[in-house]
Amino acid sequence: MSDKYTLTVTNDSTQTGNFCIYQAEPDTNIGHIITLAWLAKSAHPSTVLEFEWQLDYDFIWTKQTELRAGSIVNTSQAWQANLCTNNQVDFDLISDAYTFANPSQGGYEGNLYINQSQRVRTGEAHVGIGMSGKGTFIVKSQPNMKVVMTPKPTYWLVFGNYKEGQVLDISEVTNTSCKLEYKGTTNMQVALKADNTWEVK
């Protein structure tokens, strides 16, 4: 079991909204990666929240197709993964239904591999990865394509009207986000101040 990370967030602003954590994009061999709001919790002014997670990875897919910023992704299937011995899975269309199959050890530690079969239809689903049971990144399905993602667990915190699984427009949220740097620690405390700027404690 991996280390547990915690983030304590205080809403010292005058607004009610959702604190949302998302992750820095992994290195990947596929273009047009979609970033999802990973963890989100609502908070009134003066509220203190705590997020907890572990570096436990998942393979995920969804049957949803037309996704845009603001869309909520509902995961159709999630299989546990790790970066060493269980870092590869097949994605197949069997009896007209998509499924993961054949979890195994991929070529290189540190990567997560999704092998899409020849039966997979272009853009009919999205496949990707998650952490602690919730989706983080997806790409459109393509037949005979191996998706390779190398996670870089770096976290960002943003405040607004966000829900878990929501497709994020990264160009829009980055300027108002707080980068969470866990250097030599697994615990952080952050406050959203009255002027809507961030304070890392």
Number of strands: 18
Our estimate of the beta-strand percent is over 45%
Query: Mean of residue pLDDT?
Result: 95
What is the tally of helical segments? 1
Low-pLDDT stretches are: none
Overall 3D shape: globular
- In the sheet with the most strands, the strands line up as 3-14-11-9-10
Largest sheet: 5 strands, mixed
End-to-end distance: 28 Å
Roughly how many Å is the radius of gyration? 18 Å
- Indicate the percent of residues in helices: under 10%
Which secondary-structure class do the elements indicate? Answer: mainly beta
Order of helices and strands: EEEEEEEEEEEEEEEHEEE
Secondary structure topology:
Layout: E1 4-11, E2 17-23, E3 27-28, E4 34-35, E5 39-43, E6 48-54, E7 57-62, E8 77-81, E9 88-94, E10 97-104, E11 112-116, E12 126-131, E13 134-140, E14 146-150, E15 155-160, H1 170-173, E16 178-180, E17 187-192, E18 198-200
Parallel strand pairs: 1-17, 9-11
Antiparallel strand pairs: 1-6, 2-5, 2-15, 3-14, 4-13, 7-8, 7-12, 9-10, 11-14, 12-13, 15-16, 17-18
Characteristics:
single chain; 201 residues; mainly beta; five-stranded mixed sheet; five-stranded antiparallel sheet; 1 helix; 18 strands; 2% helix
